[in-house]
Every structure is written in C-alpha cells, then in structure tokens.
Design goal:
mainly alpha, 9 helices, transcription, DNA-binding, HTH_AraC, Helix-turn-helix transcriptional regulator, Homeodomain-like_sf
Length: 174
Amino acid sequence: MEAVRTVLEKAGYRPTEVTLGEAHLDEHTPADPAAVAPLLREAGFDVLMGRAEQMTEQIKGALVEYLEHLRTARMPLTTSAFLTDRFAATYSHLSKVFSRTANLTIEKYLIRLKIERVKEMLSYNEMTLSEIADQMRYSSGQHLSNQFRQVTGRSVSEFRRELLPKRLSLDQLA
C-alpha cells in the first residue's frame, strides 16, 4: 500500500486513502487512470480500470474456488449455478463480461484451471488417471486424457515421463 501511495505521490496525485486494491484521491486532484496505470504497472502492480475487468478478476477467483467445490461436494453445482449464486447475476451476463475482457470463455478458462490442477495432481504421483478424473468430475479418464492433450499439446504419459527425475540404472554407476 505504501508503494502505491509513493507512486501516486511521485506522479503528482494526493492520495487520501490507499487500501488493498483501491486508492482514493483528494477531491481536488483530477484523476487520470490512463496516466497512472503505466506507472503502477512499472512498479509491478496490475491495474483494473473498469467494472468489467474487476468482475472478470472476481469470476477468475470464484472459478478457483469452484475447483475445490467440484472436488469436495457430494453433489456439486454446475458452473453456471455456482457463479450465478455467487454474483447474483445471470450466467449470460457474467459470460459476456468475462468473454469480452478475458478474450476467452468461462468454460475455456475453467478447463485451463482444471488442467493445471490435474498437472499438480499428476506431479504428486499418488493417484491413477482414473482417480484424478473422478475427483475433477470428468466423465472418464479418456475424456480427461483427450482434454489434457488438447490444452497442453502432449499426452498424460508424456507429461508424467517429463516429471520423472533422470536416473542412472545400477549397471551404469561407476
């Protein structure tokens, strides 16, 4: 928060309050978000300009929570039901906002999240592909395998082989 305050002050703004994710300026200070954004980005901060971008980031966060819901709920909600409950907005509206600002659909983003979670689970090497597919609510291991290949460009087997440490066989030891 101090870093944001410093950036704003160096740019000639007078912040009255800086909290996580928000900065309020003195009422006599004209705000020009387009001028401040590059300064904040240069300092390593993401800048959300409008309500659509903010909503998109909130949807992304909710989708991460939805992955946990999928894994733990006995009868998980659909993605659309989960999001409409969370945001009190129609799925159609949420989908349009998300697609416009993220340049991909909610469904495609969720698939990417699921595949990243699958990669993590594969790296632990504690479950079979079928067990992972069940936990991630895929209809089958084959469906997961096909989607994994579409997203990553390689098979689950190839991914697993890359995770294995390169080891020498016993007869190769000197």
